[in-house]
Predict the structure.
Amino acid sequence: MDAGYRGEDFAHWIIDVFRWIVEVVFRPLEKKSFTLFPKP
């Protein structure tokens, strides 16, 4: 999930409705466009 959805209320809503756990991922500050992240 991108940093546009970093609110606690949103995360709790996702858990309550879908039973999913979301992780907010921030783009490095030096990047100005799309950045591909490796899967953990």
Summary: The chain has one helix and no strands. The first helix runs from residue 8 to 18.
